[in-house]
Structures are given as structure tokens and as C-alpha cells.
Design a protein that fits this description.
The chain is built from eleven helices and eight strands. The chain is an alpha/beta fold and 308 residues long. The chain has two domains: 194 residues, 3-Layer(aba) Sandwich (Rossmann fold); 85 residues, N-(1-d-carboxylethyl)-l-norvaline Dehydrogenase, domain 2 (Orthogonal Bundle). It has an eight-stranded mixed β-sheet with strand order 3-2-1-4-5-6-7-8, sandwiched between helices. The structure holds acetoacetyl-coenzyme A (CAA).
């Protein structure tokens, strides 16, 4: 990280998948320094490959010059991390598991790993001993409590939700979610980071599903009920919402893009948090997840997709 330019934040992004690689892409496009982490070389390489492809596309579409692309590529660093947390470890006196990276330059960590509290909490706990005390920790969770995640770290005042939308390079919104403990200056810095990456931050409070998934997921779930009950076939359900409501994608097509497992997990968070049966995941959604039909990423969901 020695060659990184001054005055540009350095952002560690954990998770090189659909959301993580997209967040890394927009941060690099904004001339920020990025360290992309995941649990294996193969995952990091796959994410980096997609980022490079996206940056090349930005040049084709004249969103970046060739020179800016080359600078962006040079600002991308990658590393492998394990989410297993050695018992009773404090980090002091321990050699860093990231010998080639100087974590002291990190301004933000944005976590974009699987939508499970334990996995997300473990990411922050593993990284915390190596990060500067002033670094802000952010989670891209789509529904888990920011307050609870913040409490699992030693810096609850410097913890915030930064919820990006898929496909990240295209969607303007970032929900900025303070937990109960989050300091106002942390929120200001998170808003500034999202805005610097060309996004429109909207501050919302920490309640299950925030605003986006509190409204979107029950609609998707209800669309799956319509399909299950034979109200219409998948194309029929989607066409009603596209042609009648001007939605860019139908709810079932959108569920395939988001991932049916992610949709089911978010419905479960709503269901368990509010203890209200209106949030129960549709049995057909559960069945498709059990079959491994998770949407675009597995080649089959409500529709079928050519594998990459
Ligand atoms: N991944 C990456 N990029 C994509 C993409 C995808 N799946 N689909 C389209 N794009 C890119 C295209 O490559 C194109 O980029 P260029 O400018 O480089 O050419 C750009 O998006 C526009 O694509 P199209 O011309 O094909 O435009 P479109 O009119 O078909 O729009 C869309 C595509 C933007 C995806 C549009 O269909 C849309 O807005 N759909 C709804 C998406 C949505 O609701 N996302 C939020 C999901 S919820 C979430 O993410 C949060 C959560 O917690 C679950």
C-alpha cells in the first residue's frame, strides 16, 4: 500500500462475490485504494477478474480514461483471510496473517460476506486487532441488526451499515444505517464515502430489513405465492409488475438476480424479528433453495440461465 495516493481513502472489502466485487469496482472507479479479501485465492482471483472486466467496460463506455483505468488497477490489492478466530487471541504480540499488507493505512472495512450473523461478526473480530483504532467498520448486510453486529466489535461507535444494491456499479442507492451506538461522525464519514463513489446515500434507521428489504422482500415472497398457487406462471407474474407498475424487472426475475437463498434468509430475519406470520417465507421459495435452484448464480431459479 506504500504507493497509494494521499487523500484517497483506503477501503478493505471482505468478500469478493457479487456484492463485494461490485463495491470494490465502484471504489476503484472513484480513485480510492482497495484491499479485497476472501477466504481462498480462487475466490479473490474470480472477484479481481470481474473488477478488471468492469473497469475495462468503463473505458469502453467513456466513464474512465485508459490512464484512470491503469491507476485503478494499480490501486487494487488482494489478500486471503480465514474467518476462524483463534480462541483468546488479542492480536497483540501475534504476527499478522497478512504479511504483505500494511493494515495501518485502512480507513474503512466494508464486509460483504454471507448473510449470517456469526460469519459477519467473525470477519470483524479477526480483522480488528490489525486495523487502526480510527478505522470505520461497515457491513453491507441486507437485514441483520447493525446494533447487534456493532456490539460484537470493540468499536461500536465506529460501526455502521452501508447497504449497496445489485448490480452495484449501476444502482444509485446506498442505505446508510446507524446502529444504536453509532457516533454521528461515523455516519457522516459513511455518507461521504458512499457519495464519493457516485452513490446517493439515504440514511435509514436500524430495523429489520431497513426500508429496502422491508418493502421489497414481502413483494417478492408474495410473487412466489402467486406462482405456487397458480395465479399466473412466472412470466405472467413478472409481466404484470413490469408492464403494469413499470418495474424494470419482474419480482421473480429480480429474485433470481438477488439469489433465492438471500431472499429466503432475509424473509427469515423479518419473520424471526417481528414474529409476524406475514413474513413467513413461501414454501415454494424454501423448496427451490433446498433444491439448490438459487437463481442466476446457479444457472436455475424461476428461469434458467447460461452458466458463465
Ligand atoms: N450485473 C452487472 N451489470 C449489469 C447487470 C448485472 N446483472 N445487468 C445489467 N448490467 C449493466 C449492463 O452491463 C449495463 O452496463 P453498461 O453501461 O456498461 O452497458 C447497465 O447495467 C445497463 O444495462 P442494460 O442496458 O441492459 O439496462 P437495463 O435497462 O436492462 O437495466 C438493470 C438493467 C439496471 C439491472 C435493471 O433491470 C434494473 O434496475 N433492475 C432492478 C435491479 C434491482 O432492483 N436491484 C436491487 C436488488 S435488491 C438488492 O440488491 C439489495 C438486497 O439487499 C437484496
Amino acid at each position: 500500500m506504500e504507493n497509494h495516493e494521499l487523500n484517497q481513502p483506503t477501503v478493505g472489502i471482505v468478500g469478493a462475490g457479487q456484492m463485494g466485487h461490485g463495491i470494490a469496482h465502484v471504489m476503484l472507479r472513484a480513485a480510492h485504494n482497495v484491499v479485497l479479501l476472501d477466504t481462498s485465492q480462487a475466490l479473490v482471483d474470480a472477484g479481481a477478474k470481474r473488477i478488471l472486466k468492469g473497469l475495462a467496460r468503463d473505458v469502453e463506455k467513456e466513464r474512465l480514461t485508459e490512464e484512470q483505468r491503469q491507476h485503478a488497477v494499480a490501486r487494487l490489492k488482494t489478500a486471503i483471510m480465514s474467518t476462524s478466530h483463534p480462541a483468546n487471541s488479542t492480536g497483540s504480540g501475534r504476527s499478522s496473517p497478512f504479511p504483505n499488507l500494511d493494515f495501518s493505512a485502512l480507513d474503512f472495512i466494508i464486509e460483504a460476506v454471507t448473510e449470517r450473523f456469526e460469519v459477519k461478526a467473525s470477519v470483524f473480530q479477526v480483522l480488528e486487532p490489525y486495523c487502526p483504532a480510527e478505522a470505520i467498520f461497515a457491513s453491507n448486510t441486507s437485514s441483520i441488526s447493525i446494533t447487534k453486529l456493532a456490539a460484537a466489535t470493540k468499536r461500536p461507535t465506529k460501526f455502521v451499515g452501508l447497504h449497496f444494491f445489485n448490480p452495484v456499479p449501476v444502482m444509485k442507492l446506498v442505505e446508510v444505517v446507524p446502529g444504536l451506538q453509532t457516533a454521528p461522525e461515523t455516519v457522516d464519514k459513511a455518507i461521504a464515502l458512499a457519495a464519493s463513489a457516485g452513490k446517493t446515500p439515504v440514511k435509514v434507521n436500524d430495523f429489520p430489513g431497513f426500508v429496502s428489504n422491508r418493502v421489497l422482500m414481502p413483494m417478492i415472497n408474495e410473487a412466489v405465492f402467486c406462482l405456487m398457487e397458480g395465479v399466473a406462471d412466472a412470466a405472467g407474474v413478472d409481466n404484470v409488475m413490469k408492464l403494469g407498475m413499470n418495474h424494470p424487472m419482474g419480482p421473480l426475475e429480480l429474485a433470481d438476480l438477488i439469489g433465492l437463498d438471500v431472499c429466503r434468509d432475509i424473509m427469515l430475519v423479518l419473520y424471526e424479528s417481528f414474529r409476524d406470520s406475514k413474513y413467513r417465507p413461501c414454501p415454494l421459495l424454501e423448496k427451490m433453495v433446498a433444491a439448490g435452484w438459487l437463481g442466476c448464480k446457479t444457472g436455475r431459479g424461476f428461469y434458467t440461465y447460461p452458466r458463465e
